[in-house]
TrEMBL record, chain A:
GO BP, one annotated term: cytochrome complex assembly
Gene: ccmE
Parts of the chain on the Extracellular side: 40-157
Swiss-Prot/TrEMBL keywords: Cell membrane, Cytochrome c-type biogenesis, Heme, Iron, Membrane, Metal-binding, Signal-anchor, Transmembrane, Transmembrane helix
The protein, known as: Cytochrome c-type biogenesis protein CcmE
Source species: Devosia epidermidihirudinis
Lineage: Bacteria, Pseudomonadati, Pseudomonadota, Alphaproteobacteria, Hyphomicrobiales
Bilayer disposition of the protein: Single-pass type II membrane protein
Mitochondrion in keyword set: no
Automatic annotation (TrEMBL), chain B:
NCBIfam families: cytochro_ccmI (TIGR03142)
Keyword Cytoplasm appears in the UniProt entry: no
UniProt keyword annotations, A-Z: Cytochrome c-type biogenesis, Membrane, Repeat, Signal, TPR repeat, Transmembrane, Transmembrane helix
UniProt-listed InterPro entries: C-type_cytochrome_biogenesis (IPR051263), Cyt_c_biogenesis_CcmI (IPR017560), TPR-like_helical_dom_sf (IPR011990), TPR_CcmH_CycH (IPR056413), TPR_rpt (IPR019734)
Family matches, as Pfam families: TPR_CcmH_CycH
Transmembrane segments: 94-113
Span of the signal peptide: 1-21
Protein name: Cytochrome c-type biogenesis protein H TPR domain-containing protein
Localisation: Cell envelope
UniProtKB/TrEMBL annotation, chain C:
Role summary: Required for the biogenesis of c-type cytochromes. Possible subunit of a heme lyase.
InterPro entries: CcmF_C, Cyt_c_assembly, Cyt_c_biogenesis, Cyt_c_biogenesis_CcmF
Domain Cytochrome c-type biogenesis protein CcmF C-terminal: 314-638
Species of provenance: Devosia epidermidihirudinis
GO molecular function: heme binding; heme transmembrane transporter activity
Entry keyword set: Cell inner membrane, Cell membrane, Cytochrome c-type biogenesis, Membrane, Transmembrane, Transmembrane helix
Designated name of the protein: Cytochrome C biogenesis protein CcmF
Pfam families associated with the record: CcmF_C, Cytochrom_C_asm
Assigned GO CC terms: plasma membrane
């Protein structure tokens, strides 16, 4: 709320005051809208199933979310490094996560991992999401599985 | 019928309360001061003066604000004078219609949604034994599943063995104790437990394997009492009196004079000496004395969980559920963790005693 | 029979609410009598719903498994406190809690509202009854908590260990009290729109309710955040998760409402905006409660989602919110605007505050709903994560924090910005000095940290500067200024404490974000690791049985840089009954900082341990507690109280003036 001193001292007419306020509001709103739009363009994260990763040629290094089911017998732990395979029944994507996986992470369960694809086709996860409920299947995963015909409702509940 | 009487009474009371409020006779809603809220404006006025005094408002601005406030009050007064009640006071007819609506709506909706004849069923008031034994069954089924997947789980066997015994599945109990011994090594206690289970499974027919186990237990620990007692009792039962006398005496020698089993052992010894004829049978009175002694000692100086369990069992044998329950609570207080409590939980649950709220 | 009586009580309350709504809107002009009837009705609704709620609690406590809700959400072996909290740890029960709080606020208006004009009181209570009728009806007809089972099972199903937490026992009631409290503001706004009377008195009546709800909401959010921090075991305290956003939006809007209602009460300006905000805030509260629950958005916090009833919920929301905005559109033009002021003035600063807060609400709303809209329109699944919110929210809050300390310094109507700036020079200098000093000492790991620190210190010192200024500290004898300080109105203290709390929270956020260190490593018993000067020694690992779980328990010794040692335990519990694993992180507090230890699942006798050092993280919650404290302080101010200032001194029957 800074304005030129000369203007301030003179005192403003009613109309000028109202105009100044409306103009101020407009400027802030316009800036905010721009900010939101720019952020939306740059900061959103797309969600892919393993099939989509293969078919869409997701660029290496782009932040994405990968969702599917942890393939049976694919989880290998070496020290703090976890390697596992995310599958949607049709395609598999190998993934690696360094750290401690959530309690509810297990083979045959749905998973959503944030991270990016590497040149070698390995998905490096920076974060693996879990949920309170042991019956939980992320909605995105359900949709992806439905799309690939792997969805069996009795698995979810 | 009772429910509907109460429901109708509650509805009637609620309607009456509203009716009396409408008559201005409610304690809660005294007549408001409807068209005069200049009090609030006075507070605003005082606020202007305070702001003026603290320099938060300029002189000219304060005067303008006061003028504005005055206009607001005048406008309000004019408005309220203008907008006299347009649709009259709330009439008796409308009031009764509303109250009738409340009654019809509430009773009607309940008629469709409610189950007036269904009683409450708090767990405490239900046939407890059924509830609890099913509980135990569930627990055992779960552990059995785990053991099927992992037969080398020592902890699983340790938990399940006494539970089997309490459920009367003596053969399973004996097998479970056998597994514990295989996995964790033999101790006199485990051997005795297995022998006990085998003997119970044999149902009075005796068991050579049990005798071997009891002998092994007695040999490995020269101070082990329970194995000797069982040994003596079995020998007495099978009529091997000289050996039985020796075993009874060996056990009695290990006592320090105030063990609860002492009197039983002495009468066993007498029976063996008397060629199997019990001179004066161990009657309830004697047990009673024994139990009283144990209870006194436990309440005074505490004891092991086995002793507590024994006390609970004894009360149950005597048919004194109240004391048994009290003993369970005392034991719970002394041993708050389930895993410390050994067979106590199984005994108590099996008998339908309460384990849940450890009230003093 | 108590369950069925509880059921009937809820239905009777629903009936009274329905008839009150109809009667209230039909007869609001007719004077005193309808107001009395509705007041009595509001109090009866409260008593009846409380009875229904008590009946549910009774059924849970006695493990009455003839109640479907208890079967699904309780277990006879749960500790008592979690049997009770189990009542609202699910959809149906939480609806009853929600309605209980709703009618409690309605009853409070009825009890304290004696001095309100009868037409306004009638309309407020009618609107409140409308909400009660709508949500009690929804509860009864689509998700009845009193549904029975026959034959009754012998044991309940639920022993979910994660929900058995003291944080989760008290957090929903607090949050709901916040959400639902804003219903009063909503009802007042609807009443103002219908009756056309909107003046400074109206703002005086609305403000305490706003303050009360805001205080509850602040505490509820802070507690939810701390719960997620220690219970989920990820070390994060805010995830920009839909549920968190849903509670945060009403908070932002409520904060804006607090400020705009102040302008309206003091200077008779911003009337329409305040009414609009009242509606928006409660609408966002409704969204917060129900959007997540409808199953449309998934979230880590969801514990009571029910997609099947989603459509009903959405229609109900559309009806309430849409109806309110329709009324607003219809009537807003006829409300009288008032109060003129210069752009540089207290009013101007508060408008700026409102502008930024409202825009922030918009940004958060867009981020939360955008994936939904995109999915519905294009079919692309995306997620809007923390980076979006950090960028937009941060960019909007920075200027707000920058101008915040000016606000209380400015005079109403027309202010002198230069003199305000002069009075803040001390605070600014101190903030700059400390920000530079700490950045230099701490090592700057992200480029925005010094700016964040600067803002945090600036806001905190700015809040103090206002107190210093008003007590004329340093310019008059110390004793005299102390007397002045104590004599300051509680509202002044409240403002200063709340703003100081914001500064403290900002500092905590910045410090944690910038200087948090983390180490994931393989660590076996006997080994130790070092992080930020703390040595963490892994003493032993054991499998330990708990009351109803088996724990993989790691015992650690932490040696602080100062040399003090502490023993702590991090464990992973597997609950026997359900087989659900949970992580219990070890959290040790050093001053304002914390060391947070998480133990991974053991694999062939190797253990992965994750260690965080979180500098000054407790400041985040400390700041929110200060804010809530400020809210309480403001509520105890005599002038803020509902009714006239001298009511307490005068008998009620006597005319006020």
């Amino acid at each position: 709320m800074t304005m030129p001193a000369a203007v301030r001292k003179k005192g403003w007419s009613r109309k000028q005051k109202r105009l100044a306020i409306i103009a101020g509001l407009g400027v802030v709103l316009a800036l905010a809208t721009t900010l939101v739009l720019v952020a939306l363009r740059d900061q959103i994260v797309f969600f892919y199933s393993p099939s989509e990763i293969v078919s869409r040629q997701v660029p290496v290094g782009q932040a994405i979310r990968l969702g599917g089911i942890v393939k049976e017998d694919s989880w290998v732990r070496t020290g703090e490094t976890n390697d596992f395979v995310v599958t949607d029944g049709a395609r598999d994507v190998p993934a690696r996560f360094i750290g401690i996986l959530p309690d509810l992470f297990s083979e045959g369960q749905g998973v959503v991992a944030e991270g990016s694809m590497g040149v070698d086709g390995l998905f490096t996860a920076s974060n693996v999401l879990a949920k309170h409920d042991e019956n939980y299947m992320p909605k995105e995963v359900v949709n992806a599985l439905k799309a690939s015909g792997e969805w069996r409702p009795e698995d979810a509940q | 019928m009772l429910f509907w009487s109460i429901a109708i009474a509650v509805t009637a009371i609620a309607c009456a309360a509203i009716y009396y409020a409408a008559a201005g006779r409610s304690a809660i809603a005294t007549p408001a001061v409807p068209e005069d809220n200049t009090g609030d404006f006075r507070v605003v006025l005082a606020g202007i003066d305070a702001d003026l005094a603290s320099g938060k408002l300029g002189e000219a601005e304060a005067t303008a604000a006061k003028a504005e406030l005055a206009r607001e009050v005048i406008r309000l007064k004019a408005d309220s004078a203008k907008a006299k009640p347009s649709n009259g006071e709330l009439g008796q007819g409308a009031l009764f219609a509303g109250l009738g609506g409340v009654a019809v709506l509430s009773l009607g909706v309940y008629f469709f949604l409610g189950q007036p004849n269904m009683p409450s069923l708090p767990l405490a008031e239900r046939s407890e034994v059924a509830a609890q034994s099913i509980n135990l069954d569930d627990a055992i089924a779960r552990i059995e599943q785990q053991l099927a997947a992992n037969p080398d789980d020592l902890r699983g066997w340790t938990v399940i063995a006494p539970a089997y015994r309490e459920l009367g599945r003596y053969a399973d109990a004996a097998h479970a104790f056998q597994r514990i011994i295989e996995l964790g090594g033999a101790t006199p206690d485990l051997q005795t437990n297995e022998a006990e289970a085998l003997l119970l499974a044999a149902d009075g027919a005796g068991s050579p394997a049990a005798m071997d186990l009891l002998r092994a237990a007695a040999e490995s620990d020269p101070t082990h009492v329970l194995s000797r007692l069982y040994l003596a009792a079995e020998l007495t039962r099978t009529g091997k009196y000289p050996e039985a006398i020796a075993a009874w005496e060996a056990a009695i020698k290990l006592s320090n004079g105030n063990e609860p089993w002492l009197s039983a052992a002495q009468s066993g010894l007498q029976a063996a000496q008397n060629d199997g004829v019990v001179p004066n049978a161990v009657d309830d009175e004697m047990i009673q004395q024994m139990v009283t002694g144990l209870a006194k000692r436990l309440s005074a100086s505490g004891g092991t969980i086995e002793e507590w369990t024994q006390l609970v069992r004894a009360y149950l044998v005597l048919g004194d559920r109240e004391r048994a329950q009290a003993a369970v609570y005392d034991a719970l207080a002394a041993y708050p963790l389930t895993f410390d409590r050994g067979d106590l939980d199984a005994v108590a649950l099996g008998a339908g005693l309460d384990l849940d709220g450890a009230k003093p | 029979m108590s369950i069925e009586l509880g059921h009937f009580a809820l239905i009777l309350a629903f009936a009274i609410a329905t008839i009150s709504t109809i009667g209230g809107y039909a007869f609001w002009r007719s004077g005193n009598r309808i107001a009395l009837v509705l007041s009595q009705g509001a109090i009866l609704q409260f008593i009846l719903v409380a009875v229904a709620f008590a009946a549910l609690i009774q059924a849970f406590v006695t493990s009455d498994f003839s109640l479907l809700l208890a079967v699904n959400n309780s277990h006879s072996l749960k500790p008592l406190i979690f049997k009770i909290s189990g009542v609202w740890g699910n959809h149906e029960g939480s609806m009853v809690l929600w309605i209980t709080i709703l009618v409690a606020f309605g009853a409070m208006v009825a009890a304290f509202g004696r001095r309100l004009p009868s037409d306004l009181l009638t309309l407020v209570l009618a609107t409140q009854s409308l909400l009660t009728a709508a949500f009690a009806g929804f509860t009864l007809f689509t998700s009845n908590p009193f549904a029975r089972v026959f034959p009754a099972p012998l044991e309940g199903k639920d022993l979910n260990p994660i929900l058995q937490d003291i944080g989760l026992a008290i957090h929903p009631p607090l949050l709901y009290a916040g959400y639902v409290g804003f219903s009063i503001c909503f009802s007042f706004a609807i009443a103002a729109l219908i009756s056309g009377r909107i003046d400074q008195a109206w703002a005086r009546w609305v403000r305490p309710w706003t303050m009360l709800s805001w205080t509850f909401l602040t505490l509820g959010i802070a507690m939810g955040s701390y719960w997620a921090y220690y219970e989920l075991g990820w070390g994060g305290w805010w995830f920009w998760d839909p549920v968190e956003n849903a509670s945060f939006m009403p908070w932002l809007a409520g904060t804006a409402l607090l400020h705009s209602a102040l302008v309206m009460e003091k200077r008779n300006a911003l009337k329409i905006w305040t009414v609009f905000l009242s509606i928006i805030t409660f609408s966002l509260s409704l969204l917060g409660t129900f959007l997540v629950r409808s199953g449309i958005l998934t979230s880590v916090h969801t514990f009571a989602s029910d997609p099947t009833r989603g459509m009903v919920i959405l229609s109900l929301l559309a009806l309430v919110i849409g109806g309110a905005f329709f009324l607003f559109a219809l009537r807003a033009a006829s409300l009288r605007q008032g109060g003129l002021f210069a752009p540089v003035s207290r009013e101007g600063a508060l408008i700026l505050n409102n502008l930024f807060l409202a825009t922030a609400v918009g940004a958060v709303l867009v981020g939360t709903l955008y994936p939904l809209v995109l999915d519905a329109l294009v079919g692309t699944t995306i997620s809007v994560g923390a980076p979006f919110f950090n960028l937009t929210f941060g960019a909007l809050m920075a200027p707000l924090l920058l101008v915040l300390p000016f606000g209380p310094m400015l005079a109403w109507k027309r202010a002198d910005i230069v003199s305000a700036a002069q009075r803040l020079i001390g605070a600014a200098a101190l903030a700059v000095f400390l920000a530079i000093l700490i950045s230099a000492l701490g090592g700057v790991s992200i480029s925005l940290a010094p700016i964040g620190l600067l803002l945090g210190f600036w806001v905190a010192f700015g809040a103090i500067a206002e107190l210093v200024e008003r007590s004329r500290l340093g310019r008059i004898p110390l004793g005299e200024s102390m007397r002045r300080l104590i004599g300051l109105p509680r509202t002044a203290w409240s403002t200063a404490i709340a703003h100081f709390g914001i500064g403290v929270t900002v500092l905590g956020i910045v410090a944690t974000t910038a200087w948090e260190t983390e180490l994931v490593t393989t660590l076996n018993p006997g080994e130790s690791a070092e992080l930020s000067g703390y040595t963490v020694k892994f003493d032993s690992f054991d499998q330990v049985p708990g009351p109803n779980y088996i724990a993989d328990e790691g015992r650690f010794t932490i040696v602080a840089p100062g040399g003090s040692t502490r023993k702590t335990i991090a464990d992973r519990r597997t609950y026997v009954a359900s087989g659900i694993p949970t992580t219990e992180a070890a959290i040790e507090t050093y001053g304002f900082s914390q060391v947070y230890l998480q133990l991974g699942e053991p694999l062939e006798n190797t253990h992965v341990v994750r260690i965080w050092h979180k500098p000054y993280i407790t400041l985040i919650w400390l700041g929110t507690i200060l804010m809530a404290l400020a809210g309480v302080l403001s509520l105890t101010d005599r002038k803020q109280r509902i009714g006239a200032p001298r009511r307490a001194a005068r008998p009620v029957a006597e005319p006020a003036e």
